[in-house]
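Quick one, T. Sequence first:
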Amino acid sequence: MKGIILAGGRGSRLKPLTSVLNKHLLPIYDKPMIYYPIETLRRAGIKDILVITGTEHAGDVFALLGSGKDFGVNFTFRVQDEAGGLPQAIGLAKEFVENDRFVSINGDNILFDDITPFVKAFEKGKEKARILLFETTREEATKAGVAVLEGEKVVKVVEKPKDPPTNWVVVGVYMYTPQVFDVIKTLKPSARGELEIADLHNYYIKVGSLAASRLTKEWLDAGSFDELLRVNRFVGERNARQ
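Structure tokens:
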């Protein structure tokens, strides 16, 4: 299994901080945000990791992470020239992935679950894609991709619904086989001009090859000032308890 960390994007909701710094280098309590997805992958035994970042402040990302020696992993880097959506960014990993299955994680997602059981289930399973779900509040569900459920089965993913059908959101951790690169080529841009990750998952639902696992611990996303503050407080209080 290989790993991908998606650390591009403009971080427009966090300007002016992101005018001078890549969003994923902002501090979460006592370390940069991007350290958390690195630790999530490493804990699952994934050591070959591709970091995909944007053109702005890419040098800062390279300088901070280096070869990966300090983290016990091996880093490769790719630059996404322009924001075209998560599937487009994932598509840049084709040569890195080759014939391996892989885990893609958004650089601003902080998980406290050990994803090792989910990764092993995907390695042994027949599905071609696996997503992770977290039960949040109704308000938060309006800001994310939401899973429409029939029992334990995901039958559709709806992006940022005004009236969420459930409170189970798709977190930024996705597992795929190399076939995903062919699927990405078939996707069409949405009204906002980007490829949508929900469309990718709905394809796998349609062909009956998507599985889902549910997180049991906290999942945090630091994409806005309020979220960044909440995440820092949560992690600081958690560390103090430990």
